[in-house]
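Sample A.
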Amino acid sequence: MVSGVVLAFCAAICMGAATVLQAMGARRTAAGALMPALRQWPFLAGIALDSLGFVAELAALRSVPLFVVEAALASSLAVTAVVGAAVLDIRLRPAEWCAVAAVCAGLALLAIAAGREGEGAGDERLRLVALGASLTLALLGRTATHRVHHHRAALLGGLAGLSFGLVAVAVRLLPDLALPAVLTTPTTYAVVVSGLGGYLLLIEALRSGSVTAATAAMVIGETVWPALFGVLWLGDTTRPGFAPLAVTGFAASIAGALALARFGEAEG
């Protein structure tokens, strides 16, 4: 279990630092120019760190409760804020330093309180539901992208968060990671559809309006419902008697992440 918590924190560090590196690469090119950015070493290093973080996330999801992993991923905003302050000359206000401290304290409480992940893995029907939900979210996201104009950033950010949360749940529902079995389960394709769909929705959300609104909606969407699903359906638990500490830590982590939502796009 300790290794799983460490992997979740490593995923947060990788993803938070990756955002800063990608911003560095993007700043060296014309606004909105993707291909020139791909030729910048910071941007490529950011992609590599994102990939490494995703692998760490997958490994963590197979060994610790969902509420720990999702809170840790939300805390990547604190990493982005701190690294961005040092590298991109972004000034953190006192309230934002307090938010960073809240995230760190919350994660410390979760690390102390976390128990083992539940043994529930769902059945084939639930795996099919996960695949259906991923396709439904992708369709809703496509429709919202073309037809919604008011509160667009928050809506698309929320849909992106729901998709990322579904990725976490689908990983937990995978019965086997070995080939060729992993290619025959519906949740594998739910991970792919939700992961790509969520990423595209987040990009469109960040382009559509307020970075803060988009990122805050994403954080809520990707953390709250997977945490509840893990506890209520998959049997995730805390250490005996540590449930109040875990709730406090989760709330502090998410509240701190929301206060740092403007760092969802480091260039902001």
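Sample B, a different protein:
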Amino acid sequence: MPTDHAAAAPGAPAAARPEPARLGLGTAAVGRPGYITLGRDADLPAERTVEALRERTHALLDAAYAAGVRYLDTARSYGRAEEFLAQWLAEHPHAAAEVTVGSKWGYTYTAGWRATGVDTHEVKEHSTQVFDRQVRESRALLGDRLDVYLVHSVVPGSPALTDPALHERLAALAAEGVRVGLSTSGPAQAATIREALAVTVDGRPLFTAVQATWNLLETSAAPALAEAHAAGLLVVVKEAMANGRLAGRNATGPDTAALRTLADRTATAPDALALAAAAAQPWADVVLSGAATLDQLASNLTAAEVALPPEDLAALAAMAEPAEAYWRTRTSLPWA
């Protein structure tokens, strides 16, 4: 297992690859039948069986690896995504030796493999009891391929930031060579990140990785992520497509006019521009694609070929919404 995950995440250079240091693949959209990405009816098989999504996940992993992606993201709450990824790794031992695998604990999947008609798809609890159970579950599937383990969707006041017993457990996991960190959600991401930077165990910083939402509509965490990067944390960007709001088929309103204008002028797909903008942030080590189809993944990965000059980045920056408004919209997105 790599010990320097910030360096290991990119993988070795190769002429035919995109910049794997800046591109990763997340499995939230394909590890379970229901999620909040817009347009899922067009993206997934009509019958969202376990086998159908296993095949889709493996096809995406095959294509991502072939394209040079070397960071793979999953979570305990992504249905059976950890299982799908573990099976792919077992079937591809050469690839398993090259990729960095990040997972998350703290949410328990409760939808029972249903996309609709479910009151609660996942339940969050950042307790020592949940950690003890879920780290065993992750280890049972991923073994020593668990490189990065994040507390899922931390907000201010979470026990992940305040519970000394939990901190001791996380520090013990870090001592085994796993990079321990947190993911963040909500309008107070910046406050959460800064609070996490102050957490220590035996005088040493506990968290050495952070995964946060940053996209052209939600940029509020950027200063705190720059601080985290400067402190040596691995910084992973999630939801760079704003749960599909920045995909070309959905980017139709006034909030995305700047993206459409630039896409038309440069003949570049909106999704590639959105991901390229995230990758252009100097503090971003990995930017995740959440593709659910091979066509989406291929388009997403062209972001590695997009160089955005300062004037284009400035035009896109004008798209940003107040954080509270962005998260209200995200909360209203339906599971489908």
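Observation for Sample B: Residues 29 and 292 are 6 Å apart (CA to CA).
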